Amino acid sequence: MARRKGADNAMNSNRIHLYETHLHTAEASACARWTGAEAARACRAAGYTGIVVTDHFVGGNTGIDRSLPWIAWVNAFEKGYLHAKQEGDRIGLQVFFGWEAGYKGTEFLVYGPDADWLRAHPEIRDATVEEQFRLIRAESGLVVHAHPFREEPYIPAIRLFPDLVDAVEVCNATHSSPKSVSHNQPSYDRLALAYAQRHGLPMTAGSDIHSSLMLDGGMAFHRRLTDLQDLIRAIREREPCFLLDGSTGSSLLSGGPAGIE
Ligand SMILES: [Zn+2]
Ligand SMILES: [Zn+2]
Fold first, then answer.
1. Could you give the C-alpha distances from 84 to 25, 92, 157, 184, 255, in angstroms and in order?
2. Dihedral, CA atoms, 39, 60, 244, 176, nearest 10 degrees?
3. Residues in CB range of 12: below 8 A, 6 or more apart
4. Would residue 189 count as lying in a domain?
5. What is the CA(15)–ligand 1 centre distance, in A?
6. 244 strand-pairing partners
7. N or C, which terminus of the chain has less Cβ within 10 Å?
């Protein structure tokens, strides 16, 4: 059974480490309004321990010219991450690499393979949804269905892959945060939560953040994660954590033997 807890409880405990799992930068996402370095500074100031940079990939709202040769495309694509990482190293923020794959509006957060892997695997560029899962799974990466129930003109149909995805983003702060200026509809999160529970899938929370407008979503763990592989393992193994949806005073406690307490 889902249990609501005050976000303040999560945030005020000094044992809590907050991670942003869904973040865009202006270097690589056409819709983002801050650079990787600006994102790192703002997240550090807001109390985050770490962030995963998940810019829109070639099939989504990428800011990188799709006509570029593959290597040049990846080199430009990773700039937002590299700038965030450089600044994060300087100010004490963990910065991890990921991306948000897009298939006609159906989107997935991909964690695991790095930019070198991308350069060596041009076949990911035109992979189908199913081929993507095969390629990322071969690298022990994690594929999270981002905001599976969002409805927008850019998403012609809700498509679900319960037998393929590793996890479901059940809290997307753009849906639930009062500060959000797009996609505001908390029911999208409620549907995602019910979907994950129905299929027994691990859950994630992210802000889908494109600027400093809203800095209050993500996953709050009871320890500092060591690296991206540690985050992947924590999600996969359903390590107890708070899932923050950005709404005032609410978070979901995830984890435990049943997946959710
Ligand atoms: Zn975007
Ligand atoms: Zn996104």
1. 9, 11, 33, 27, 30
2. 110
3. none
4. yes
5. 32
6. 218, 251
7. N
Q: State phi, psi for 31 to the nearest 5 degrees.
A: -95, -5
Q: Cα separation of 108 and 94, whole Å?
A: 22
141 vs 183, which has greater pLDDT? 141
Mean pLDDT value across the chain = 90
Q: Which-ligand-closest: CA of 31?
A: 1
Residue 116 Cα distances to 97, 142, 148, 233, angstroms: 11, 17, 29, 21
For 88, phi then psi, to 5°, come to -60, -40
Ligand nearest to the CA of 110: 2
Q: Which structural domain, as residue segments, surrounds residue 96?
A: 4-254
Q: Is residue 213 part of a domain?
A: yes
Report if residue 207 sits inside a domain.
yes
**Domain contains 186:** yes
Q: What is the pLDDT of residues 219-250, one digit of tens each?
A: 999 999 999 999 999 999 999 999 998 886 55
Calculate the CA dihedral of residues 108, 109, 115, 120 and round it to 10 degrees: -30
Please tell me the number of the ligand nearest to residue 209's CA.
2
Domains contained in the chain, number = 1
pTM of the model: 0.91
Q: How much distance in Å is there from the Cα of 208 to the middle of ligand 2?
A: 5
Which CATH number fits the domain that encloses residue 114? 3.20.20.140
Q: How far is the CA of 11 from the centre of ligand 1 (A)?
A: 27
Question: 88-130 pLDDT, tens per residue?
Answer: 999 999 999 999 999 999 999 999 999 999 999 999 999 999 9
